[in-house]
Design goal:
259 residues; mainly alpha; 0% strand
Length: 259
């Protein structure tokens, strides 16, 4: 079967599931009800990439593709748009945003590609209700990812620190403000200052050409692995973590790190 035939088969399956006499569960769904599955499938794709499992990645990409087809099928039932419109829209966008491939624009490297991309998007925003350089970053994004995208867009517009050392200085300033808020202010002010620390940290990651989301994810994995080793050691000893004093906890943690 060709790619087109495979895709038409998937669209036909989804249509059958939603049609009278199809699957009761699929037929009851709405755009709102299946929103969580779209996010879940996207994260499962990311996990498969991190695991380096090609077979799993293939399957998870299929699950993600199904969500696109599912939403398009529901829209087509009320004549709003169909899967063909979705495909045509993204094809038009990709051709429009790659004039160095599909037209006569010349670029030297990927940096110029990104510059042109930003200019093209800015031109597109002139026809949108939101013309800000920060437009196009959904509020529903996880906060850490959204913070990095917002800071990237602000930097592309010319609002940025010039050196990593300036970002580190800013982080120290924000930490001082957290301490002052804890000492002198209420919970709302503390939350505000802590948010500033986190945002500054995201900017540091960006300046170091790292992704804050990835860095935090790996740190969380390391913590989880070490904590489980601590639990396993205590289980062998027949002891509870809550019964250890600070020195014993530190020693247990260091042993977990060393292993």
């Amino acid at each position: 079967m060709t790619i087109g035939e495979h895709f038409e088969k998937l669209v036909a399956i989804m249509h059958r599931l939603r049609a009278p006499g199809g699957c009761p569960w699929d037929g009851e769904q709405t755009h709102e009800s299946i929103k969580p599955y779209l996010i879940e499938e996207a994260y499962e794709v990311l996990e498969a990439i991190d695991d380096g499992d090609d077979k799993e990645l293939c399957g998870e990409l299929g699950d993600l593709l199904l969500q696109v087809v599912f939403h398009a099928e529901m829209a087509s039932e009320t004549n709003r748009f169909a899967i063909a419109d979705v495909i045509e829209a993204i094809c038009d966008k990709m051709v429009r945003r790659h004039p160095h491939v599909f037209a006569d624009t010349e670029v030297r490297d990927s940096a110029e590609v990104l510059q042109n991309w930003s200019k093209i998007k800015a031109a597109e925003r002139k026809h949108s209700a939101d013309t800000s350089a920060l437009a196009g970053v959904p509020k529903a994004m996880p906060a850490l990812i959204r913070a990095q995208r917002i800071s990237e867009k602000a930097a592309s517009a010319g609002f940025d620190w010039r050196q990593v050392s300036q970002v580190i200085t800013k982080m120290r300033e924000e930490l001082d403000e957290v301490e002052a808020a804890i000492r002198d202010e209420g919970p709302e002010r503390v939350e505000e200052e802590l948010g500033d620390v986190l945002f500054a940290t995201v900017n540091l990651a960006r300046h170091l050409r790292l992704r804050g989301e990835d860095a935090l994810g790996k740190a969380t994995d390391r913590f989880s692995d070490r904590f489980r080793k601590m639990e396993a050691e205590l289980e062998q000893q027949g002891r509870a973590m809550a019964d250890l004093d600070d020195t014993e906890l530190d020693q247990l943690w260091e042993r977990a790190k060393a292993s």
